[in-house]
Write a structure and sequence with these properties.
Strand content: 15-25%
Structural class: alpha/beta
CATH superfamily of the domain at 5-191 and 224-254 and 293-313: NAD(P)-binding Rossmann-like Domain
Number of strands: 12
CATH topology of the domain at 5-191 and 224-254 and 293-313: Rossmann fold
Radius of gyration: 20 Å
Bound molecules: nicotinamide-adenine-dinucleotide, thymidine-5'-diphospho-beta-D-xylose
CATH class of the domain at 5-191 and 224-254 and 293-313: Alpha Beta
Shape: globular
Order of helices and strands: EHEEHEHHEHEEHEEHEEHEHHHH
Length: about 350
Amino acid sequence: MSAKTILITGGAGFIGSHVVREFVLKYPEYHILNLDALTYAGNLSNLTDIEDKDNYEFIKGDIVDLNFINELFIKHEITDVIHLAAESHVDRSILNPLAFIHTNVVGTSNLLHAAKSNWSNTSEHKFYHVSTDEVYGSLSETGYFLETTPYDPRSPYSASKASSDMIVRSFAHTFNLPIVISNCSNNYGPNQFPEKLIPLFISNIIDQKPLPVYGKGENVRDWLYVVDHAKAIDLIFHEGQPGETYNIGGENEWSNIDLIKLLCQKMDTKLGRNKGDSESLITFVKDRAGHDFRYAIDCSKLKKNLDWAPIETFETGIEKTIDWYLGNQQWIEHVKSGAYQEYYSQQYSNR
Ligand code: NAD
Ligand code: TDX
């Protein structure tokens, strides 16, 4: 591929910041535009190491603003989109579903509309939509999500992502827009806002606060290290077939309670605390409304067709993750201030 101006949306967030870094450092010939509204989840300190690079530019803006998005496409002659901007936390979608419809459904539709309006020769472009395994619904103890599994979203978050996936596909089918979609399992690693399970629990263990386990902690998730997700996005962006969907996963399933106990043991060792100190913080709380039981991804298409494999094992990834949060406690305090406090008190007053 030759000179490209790639619009990466949501690049100040958790996964987006790793995708931006991967592209800025690996492809000096590309111009990378990071568009982010800097909501509570977006933080430019996630990108300080690359912010001075010549091929990087940050633009603050909202994907829900269609005029702004259209002008951005015209002004910067955007050739490709990698779309990650979203409201991403299931618990917040239970408290405020409309925010998810606005950003995830309307915002995605605006980007598609701008791409369709501004790209005359569609074969020169790519619109990459980053989605989630949650669109497929919930599994029992057995089985895996395939790319062909019918959609069955069950939370306002997953329904908004499923809607956006469908609208992306409709633009490919109707207008020949060259799209690609990936659906990934739970990510973990540096820069994740401490409202999601792993960073929240690491932060609470450091502060010796209760660890709120929803229900009995028996729900199962598949975990992938975030940099491996960013590398998969790079591979699919360059090698993926237009119109295709690729599942991305870690083949690394954990029940929440087993994962939490592992975190507790590792944190006791790292913090020089007595064995069992962190586990004593475990508090079983009211279950999440509509809590999906199990997610598990079959990513054999990506492995077979594009020769993808994650670099980190869970053992190495979780060590890196814990060490990063222990070394960046100021980051945790910084992102937790402000809007987060309001949400956190509302969240737990409902339990
Ligand atoms: P995040 O919440 O950490 O980051 C989202 C980013 O989008 C933030 O920087 C935020 O400021 C920005 N944003 C939100 N609304 C915006 C708007 N209206 N206009 C412009 N920017 C806006 O999310 P994440 O966990 O990094 O997820 C990124 C993408 O990956 C999402 O689309 C999510 O659905 C998907 N995904 C996440 C996971 C996961 O485990 N976190 C797994 C699979 C897929
Ligand atoms: O305090 C908690 N206690 C708890 O038991 C939190 C925050 C979570 N949980 C449970 C709920 C889930 O079973 O832990 C599991 C993981 O929860 P989250 O970290 O909120 O992730 P999940 O709901 O599985 O969704 C994530 O993976 C798919 C991301 O937030 C989504 O953006 C992604 O699409």
